[in-house]
Each structure stands twice: as structure tokens, then as C-alpha cells.
Write a structure and sequence with these properties.
Length: 127
């Protein structure tokens, strides 16, 4: 295969073909480890494919994940899932304070723990 003056690839039969967007590269142990790490972080296939170490298509990422026994799962944002309305309220309050949702929740938990009666007063469950 050669490249003509227009930058097109030409095979031995004279037919012009376009180069692929992603060059064919081997799945090295570094790329496989990165693939597993990113999937474990909750990244979707499109986002994983755009990672500079992975540099592949979303379809290829799906195939390789299946090949290596990895599964894409919905990321919940932490150890628990907030309903949409609650998540939106926390996001708004966090943005007003220049924090992330997780940062705001951490501040709330630390503040509640600092006052002996605050947790009981907030929950008001009689315990």
C-alpha cells in the first residue's frame, strides 16, 4: 500500500482507500489496565475510547471489554444513588458555594457530626 500525491492510500490493485481514523494498535497490558480502570470508574465506551491511552472507537472498546471480561455499569456517583430531585437540589446548593455535589455532602456530614444533637434533630425519628 502506498500514499499518492493527494494523501490517499492506494492498494496494489490501484483502488484508493481512506485511512482509518484509529491506527491499528495492539492491546498492551498498559491499555488493558487503563481500560479496566476507566470502566471501573464508570466511564461509558465513548468516553473510554477518547482517552489518549486507549485511542480507539467505542465499538472496539465494547469488543475488548467483552474479550477481557469487563462490564459497563451505570455509575451512581458514589456508594449510593440520589433520586433526581435530590441530586438537582444538592447540585444547585453546591454550585452556589463553589463546591461539587460530593464536596457539599461531605461538608454537611462533617457539620452534622460536629454537633451532638444535630443528627437527632434533623432525623426527628425519636431514637
Amino acid at each position: 500500500m502506498t500514499v499518492d500525491t493527494n494523501g490517499k492510500y492506494t492498494d496494489s490493485g490501484g483502488m484508493k482507500t481512506q485511512p482509518t481514523l484509529y491506527p491499528k494498535t495492539r492491546w498492551t497490558s498498559e491499555r488493558i489496565a487503563r481500560l479496566g480502570f476507566l470502566i471501573g470508574q464508570g466511564w461509558d465506551a465513548k468516553k473510554v475510547a477518547s482517552d489518549p491511552v486507549i485511542a480507539s472507537s467505542a465499538n472496539n472498546v465494547h469488543r475488548q471489554a467483552q474479550r477481557f471480561g469487563l462490564a459497563f455499569r451505570e455509575r451512581t456517583g458514589g456508594p449510593f444513588h440520589l433520586p433526581g430531585e435530590a441530586a438537582a437540589l444538592y447540585d444547585t446548593a453546591a454550585a452556589r458555594r463553589g463546591l461539587t455535589r460530593e464536596g457539599l455532602i461531605k461538608v454537611l456530614l462533617v457539620t452534622a457530626a460536629a454537633d451532638d444533637g444535630l443528627i437527632d434533630n434533623i432525623l426527628d425519628d425519636g431514637l
